[in-house]
């Protein structure tokens, strides 16, 4: 489907880091070690909510082999300042408290102290010797409970933002957000059909297989080196710099290979602690979380409630849409409330929209980004409600969406007007797909849902270097979480007109390339790709200068084609084309090394739309859902390396299926997480799934030279409702609360069919 | 503290039982280790002596004896699953043992460990109970044979005495027209602990069920032998009425809990569903024998 | 704590090491022997990232005590390629993009090889169930399953 004029873009070469990653050679976070390193371990709160009266570390510090113990006293307090991180906003005052509890422990698993010792066994013994005097406080876990007037208040200073007049007392509601287009009341008056439902979702974890890990080495002169598994080593540098008062340029952060992140590795947990322990001991300190710590202490995606009301004419035209979203932020404010609200109706061209959102704190780990943060939650509600509407109107669910689809020129409820987008094309691709045209098998049902994500641009830097033999290195600064080295090298090879394997992509540390915002927001192939393309353009400009010098002509008289400098026309003179190798060989005589650089703040990230179809069966006796066939279609701009684009769709689908069917955080009455492991936090396994078919709809983004749109996040948005819609059509029972786990679905089926319960 | 942990791998049962008795409650038997290592890591147990029994021949072999089978308690699930004659005679027992964990877990985990871990949700146990398996126990006072259903005393607790080791399971000879089946319900297709497990063992002659045993897991503090369910099946032609009665008997004995894996109502309902489905599979298999 | 001396074979080479009696085989591979290709994703046998074979039997190295390796033969991801030749599974995983982040990849490769060594002609369902003990959060499993199916077909073809 790719533009036939490309030589490399749209092909599927082996990724540059492939051999390393299939041989065990690639070094991930926990694979870094230094001579003389200490092992750091964190003491975590056993209570969901407790005031910390005092911490006595003397016995731990006296244990042979223990080299340092730190508590919040070792970290300077921070101002009330909000800074962006990935797709989320964080407050530095809260970040330092999340890294190390200060006045209160706000969730089970909250770090309260840490030790560095010669061995892990000694470190564990030391943790047991730290005496924390807790005053246990009443706790609150769920979002609706936390919003009640009599709920235990987590933060005495927290006055709801976005409400006028400002409340006079603290509550757990950190923020109210209002988002209005048109006149929703007037819209509902035109409606012939109004559907109204309330939905709920549970928190889910990103579930990256690699736990957080870091190694920090602070030298006596104040310089610090950190190795970390992170989606953003520049963010690690920034946070460590701010939280510990060390100048950014003194800290050099090298990203390891990263074993999954999905947004969950855009924040810091261990790095400032390891750095502080290293500063105190003068030795390198390695810290690795256990899986249990990952579940208890790192940020999941929020759970939430969404109330939706949609009004339509009998012909399917939606005339008004309203929703109220309340999201759990965890222990500190800052759920992905904005994206949840803004994406809710973004797929549709609706004149009258009203969205209200609430950001609510409760005694759970502070949430972190997870693939299209917030969007799956509101899409679960909106896309389920649309399915009810389609059933009510007797309309095909694709036709209903086509009737209302956003297109170029549609003004969103949150402000921007869409440029070229591919939602209609994606819906049509599904409608004409083999899957959608096939009859639904007996005993099965089919569900459809759509999803939207903005995609992000932001800051990127890149450099391109020509080696003495004419091969090329392109350097950028985003950890490669799913094959981005390959897509960057493909674009560089295309731009330069050389073979893919003559271009080696490198991910540089924070001291070796300019700033790069996190690997997140589906931005790397778009924004960092743009920086790479621009750095190559800059290098080509220099290459033309060198050819011009060689030929003694004006640089304007030289063109760059197929990896060679050529005279712009016959009037320039008769010259043999000069290859990269030729120009590299003569570089010493024409001006020295040949490099290119680029830095930018990328604008015009093209939004993406996905449409998913699933066929499934429900075992009515057990409530078990079996997925038989799944197709994900998406407007992907240009698929630079189609295999990795398909992989993004397939991976997102399966995470969404897990969210729909079985994944959830289960808390006991004391506010402790009851399922902090992969046994009872049930992510999909290989035998749960069929192949995931993909349809790549290529509607190029006009704001990128190769038409790139981010693709990574959209695919997790539709599956929740696609599965729910199929379950509803299979059983006649509409599930509104996730997950649709067997006990829950079975109970709903029994409630709807009393005869079965009695059986 | 794990300061003085000792690891030993004796080659005789007497040596193992002696070390276990001498450890004064601080000894742990290591067979596959797939429960023990997880518990040690979680700090749930901190043994002083770890006694690896995998060098003891009697515990690591499968033998055909007297028309039945003797399965060493430390034989891994993978090895059990590769024993063609055992699979032929006791498909339910074999599939139950093979459902314990992933292929990786199967490479280590044993029926003996599954039994002695004493989880009411242990997959192998309902099938072994239905099979009327007996357990050979070796201890300081010698050997004894016990029906498998007598081993569990409650979650994490067994009736084994100090120094006693489960050596092997004995499965009786098969009468013509006999077969067994095991089904469990888990939310995913693999990698979960049973929400309910049900083993059914039948003999069918001329279309009539002449003997039956039913084992139920994860619905009470211990795995249950459900005699009322068996009685409902025996003498019937395994028609809907008999199956309904047996399912009702299964539901009636359930005393489950609400937990992260299921609710009381769900477990109780599923006990009946699995009884019917497992019986149907066993019946179909019996017809082939 | 007194150390235990263990003699074993790793990737065909005799290896001796000293370990704590409660150290896992995974910890010894990674920390004592520098074989960091086996990964710890959970430490409880639920993710398969630490998969190795012990006497050709697929196991989780996090659930084996290091002293249990005495006298046995261990194979890890580091022993899969022969000289400068990737194993066909390794090659196919790269070609088909059967990895994204790559953290689960060593475990999937070791497990897949153990399957094909035993069953050269597995069905898709058999592959899916065999690999159910290996969690991948990136790929949705699709390309992993396809890679194993293609390698099985290639190897059968080559054996004819």
TrEMBL record, chain A:
Pfam families per record: Ald_Xan_dh_C, MoCoBD_1, MoCoBD_2
Aldehyde oxidase/xanthine dehydrogenase a/b hammerhead domain sequence ranges: 23-138
Gene3D superfamilies: Aldehyde oxidase/xanthine dehydrogenase, a/b hammerhead, Aldehyde oxidase/xanthine dehydrogenase, molybdopterin binding domain
GO molecular function: iron ion binding; oxidoreductase activity
Keywords in alphabetical order: Molybdenum, Oxidoreductase
UniProt region (Disordered), positions on chain: 1-20
Cited PANTHER family: ALDEHYDE OXIDASE 1-RELATED (PTHR11908:SF132), XANTHINE DEHYDROGENASE (PTHR11908)
Protein name, entry field: Xanthine dehydrogenase family protein molybdopterin-binding subunit
Protein source organism: Vineibacter terrae
Automatic annotation (TrEMBL), chain C:
Domain 2Fe-2S ferredoxin-type: 4-80
The keyword Iron is assigned to this record: yes
InterPro entries, alphabetized: 2Fe-2S-bd, 2Fe-2S-bd_dom_sf, 2Fe-2S_ferredoxin-like_sf, 2Fe-2S_ferredoxin-type, 2Fe2S_fd_BS, Beta-grasp_dom_sf, Diverse_Oxidoreductases
PROSITE patterns for this protein: 2FE2S_FER_1 (PS00197), 2FE2S_FER_2 (PS51085)
Keyword entries, A-Z: 2Fe-2S, Iron, Iron-sulfur, Metal-binding, Oxidoreductase
MF annotations from Gene Ontology: 2 iron, 2 sulfur cluster binding; metal ion binding; oxidoreductase activity
Name assigned to this protein: (2Fe-2S)-binding protein
